[in-house]
Design a protein that fits this description.
With 189 residues, the protein is an alpha/beta fold. It has a single domain, classed as Alpha/beta knot. 42% of the residues lie in helices and 20% in strands. The chain contains eight helices and nine strands. α6 crosses α8. The chain is globular.
């Protein structure tokens, strides 16, 4: 499996549908790296153009990879080592291309249903991920990925539809990512 994930902080929307760069949340780094390690993801990119946010992420990585955290919690170190910090989606894609020798398919997530030729069910997406293709699965922060990013995608993954859903649809990115990765590559009997 040649799956990479990215957490995109720009361009995303705020609640007023304005294009913004969102802040890095430290718990996202911890939880998504652990999720990536658990499901065999090759690398987890934290994508944010803001220098102060990149410095925050780098400080956290240093603590867990080479600082006190490295000896305090070796499991956390192993997960955090999967993180790559990038300023743009394009830079992340270039790194994947260099590592894999081919450009990745760009698969994005969205909480709203977008029907079209690029829309994928979880089953269809799982088949692509299970093939020999390189896939870069992007999760958005704040109130979702900007239309520019959606337009660059090879595929848009169908949204999570929970049984018993009461119209409320605003999962944390950590929760959504866990559900999505389990549906795509989780082991079922």
């Amino acid at each position: 499996m040649r799956l990479y994930i990215g957490l995109l902080h720009y361009p995303v929307y705020n609640k007023n549908r304005q294009r913004i760069a969102s802040a890095i949340t430290t718990v996202d780094l911890h939880d998504l790296s652990r999720l990536a390690r658990t499901y065999g993801v090759k690398r987890f990119f934290v994508i944010n153009p803001l220098e102060d946010q990149q410095m925050l992420a780098e400080r956290i990585l240093r603590h867990w990879i080479s600082g006190f955290g490295a000896t305090y919690n070796r499991n956390r170190k192993e997960a955090i080592e999967l993180i790559g910090i990038s300023s743009t989606l394009e830079t992340s894609k270039e790194e994947i291309t260099e590592l894999e020798g081919e450009s990745p398919l760009l698969m994005v997530t969205d909480a709203s249903k977008r029907v079209g030729k690029t829309s994928l069910t979880f089953s269809e997406a799982a088949n692509i991920i299970g093939s020999d293709r390189v896939v870069f699965l992007i999760f958005g922060t704040a109130w979702g990925l900007d239309e520019e990013i959606m337009g660059q995608a090879d595929y848009i993954l169908d949204p999570i539809e929970a049984k018993g859903k009461n119209g409320y649809n605003h999962l944390s990115v950590r929760t959504a990512a866990a559900i999505i990765l389990d549906r795509l590559i989780g082991q079922y009997e």
